[in-house]
Design a protein that fits this description.
Elements lengths: L5 H10 L17 H37 L7 H13 L23 H4 L6 H6 L15 H15 L1
Helix pairs in contact: 3-6
Length: 159
């Protein structure tokens, strides 16, 4: 029987090499996290700038949405029908909103009519047919319902 002393066993354990785990093949470039981290580090400033730009734009848009929503959505049903009529028959020459210029320079923007005439006084000319106006303005007559709708829309432009 062979008896080994304690120091001999301990020294044998220290001297014996530890088995190495098997080597894994290198990762493909798409899965190499070190390359991904390096790429992210170079893209981070641009990404942050883009994110901040998008955040600022979305804040601006969300601040404007309530005022934009008040445009056509806040109109009464009569004013909405008047807008449809005006958009169909007048928008070729006149500006029909609160900001844009008229497509035909000699045609007044409808938003300024209340500065020249009381809008209620336009009921009769609209019903009987407007003959004056810009040179290319067609003569037309509106039925009483259409007159009320157009007047309601013109009043909404005063606000």
């Amino acid at each position: 029987m062979l008896t080994l002393a304690w120091p001999l066993v301990r020294s044998a354990a220290i001297i014996a090499p530890m088995p190495q785990p098997p080597r894994c093949p290198p990762l493909p470039a798409a899965l190499d996290y070190r390359g991904l981290l390096a790429k992210m580090a170079t893209l981070m400033p641009r990404t942050l700038h883009t994110f901040r730009t998008i955040l600022a734009a979305s804040a601006t848009i969300s601040a404007l949405l309530p005022s934009l929503a008040r445009g056509e959505d806040a109109l009464s049903p009569a004013a909405q029908r008047g807008l449809v009529f005006v958009r169909t028959h007048c928008a070729h020459c006149h500006s029909i909103d609160k900001v844009s210029p008229s497509p035909l320079v000699t045609a007044l923007p409808l938003r300024t009519l209340h500065e020249r005439y009381p809008v209620e006084n336009l009921e009769e000319p609209l019903a009987e047919g407007i003959i004056t106006g810009h040179p290319s303005m067609p003569e037309f007559r509106l039925d009483p319902g259409q007159v009320a709708d157009v007047i309601a829309y013109l009043k909404s432009l005063e606000r």
